[in-house]
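User: I need a structural model of Putative membrane protein from [Bacillus] enclensis for a docking pre-check later this week. Nothing fancy, just the predicted structure tokens so I can convert them on my end. Input:
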Amino acid sequence: MQIITSEALISFLAHVGTGLGLMILGVIVFAFTTKFSEATLIREGNLAVALKLWGKAIGLAIVIYTVWANSVNLFDAFVWGLIGIATQVIAYWIIEYVLTPKTNLAKKVEEGNVAIGFSLFSVSIVVGLIVAASLTY
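Assistant: Understood. Predicted structure tokens for Putative membrane protein:
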């Protein structure tokens, strides 16, 4: 029977800590892409805002999962995790300002438009999957 080595445990904890750190950083960065307090609106029951924010988080988690499976070391994984965060933000800006220039998506979500919130949720997961697939070279 193989016992877990201290080296393996330290590596595991380093990866978990880095992954959770990237998730926290990602959620904070995602929150700064809006002009309203997502935490406040979610506490008030705004489902559209919750969908928008946590769709981005799920998309980022998909990227982090793939990064951990394909990176050569922890630093490489960290860098690709940062690229995943940046890609999610850039994708949102492209959708907001290029693909839907006549619709203020942030305002619609703030107003509680669940259809827009769910659409952004879905797009964030799709972007996460595309970025993840692109990292399996």
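Before docking, keep this in mind: The first helix runs from residue 6 to 32.
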